[in-house]
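Pipeline run #58 for the internal structure catalog. This entry was flagged by the ingest filter as a single-chain record with no existing model, so it goes straight to prediction. Upstream metadata was stripped on purpose; only the residue string is passed forward. Reviewer on rotation: M.T. Logging verbosity set to normal.
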Amino acid sequence: MLRIRSITPLLALALLLAACAQATPSPSTSTPISTVASVTSLPPVVTQPVATTSAPTTVAPTTTSTTTTAPPPTTTTTTLPPSETTQLELVETISGDISPKSVVASGTGLFFAQNMMYRHTITVYDSDYQLVETISDEVVLSDFGIDGFEGSHQGAPVETAFTSDGRYAYVSNYEMYGDGYRRAGGDGCNKGGWDHSYLYRIDTERLAIDQVIEVGAVPKYVAITPDDTTVLVTNWCSFDLSIVDAASATEVATVELGRHPRGIAVSPDGRVAYVAVMGSRDIAIVNLADLEVGWLRGVGSNPRHLVMSPDGRYLFATLNGDGRVIKIDLESGEVVARVATGSAPRSMDISDDGAALYVVNYNSGTVSKVLTDDMVEVQELPTNYHPIGITYHAGEVWVSNYSGTIQVFSDLVETSEP
C-alpha cells in the first residue's frame, strides 16, 4: 500500500498511477425489494417561528481562534478518470489533538473536521493535508443576540454543511456546556424536555463563527438547499427536522418525523428533502414547499446516512442495523438493489460522476468502495479504529476515525483489466 507525505499533488498522482493494481469485485447481493412510498398519510407538521434565535453577523472576537486567514479557494482543471475504473490507495494519515466525528470538504480546498465535546474544536485542513486553523466551539451567546445566559458556553461540533460557493459552513452542536444547560439528551434518548442546542455559521474566509442559531435537542446532520436559502437540521432527541431561513438566521419551522432522525439528502431542484429516521425502518420525504411528509416505508433496519445520485434519480442509504447499503429508485419508490459492506455502515459519500459510493464501516474498521450501477463492493480497505465520517473531493476520500486520525485515500489509480 502506497503512503505519500508532503509531496506535490502532481508527483503524488504520478506515483499512484505507477502503483496501479486491479480491484477484484465481490459477488453482488442485490435483490429488488418493493418499498413504494405512501404520500397520503402525513404526520403532524409544526410551524412555529423561533424569534430568539435571530443573530447578527458579527464575529465574537474573544471566543474563536482566527489567527490566520484561510487560503484563497483552489480551482482545478484536471479531468478525473471515471471512478468505476480506479481503486483506492492510502496516501496520508493526519493526526494531532483531534477526535473527529465527521470530516467534510468545502469544495474550495478546505476540509472541516468536527471534534465533538472531546476536543471542543473544529480543525480545518487544506488540500496539502496541512492544519490551517483550530476553531474553538466556545461562544458568548449574548454576542449573538441570545440573552438570559451568563458567561461563555461551549458546544460539541458534530456535522458540517457548506454553502454552494464554500463561503459559509453550518456546524451542528450535539449539546451546549455552560449556564442554563443542565439537561442534555443522549444517543439513547426518548423525546421530551431536553435542552435545545445551536447551529454555528462559520465564515470560511475569516475562519470565525459569525452566527449562532437555536435549533432542537441534539442536532446531528446538516444540509443546505442548492440555492443556499434554507438550512435543514435533524434533531435526534426532538424527533424532528429544523427548517432554518439562512437570510434571517432563524429556525422558522419544525417537522415531526419520529425517533432519531439522522441523514438528509436534498433533491437537485431543492424541492424535496429525504430524511433517514434511524430509530425506524423508514425514510421521510419532506416537501419543502408545504412541509408535508410522505414515506419510503420498510427500507431496512436503522437507515442512517443518505446520498443522492447527481441526476436525482436514485437515493442511496446505509442501513446501520442490517450492515447493508441500498439503492432506491425514486421514480418507483422501490429498493432495487442492496449490498453488504462491513459491520455497521455509517457515513458515505458519492463520487462527482455518480459511479461510486464510499462507505465507512464502524465496527469492521474499514472503508468500502461500491459501484452504483450494479451495487457491487469492489474494495474494502482497513482504516484506523472506528471510522465514522467520510467526504469525497477531487478524486480523494477523507475518512475521520473516532480514535483520533483522519486518513486520506486517493481514488485516482486506474485499474488494469486482465
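catalog note: Residues 99 and 118 are 7 Å apart (CA to CA).
catalog note: The first helix runs from residue 9 to 18.
status: ready for reviewer M.T.
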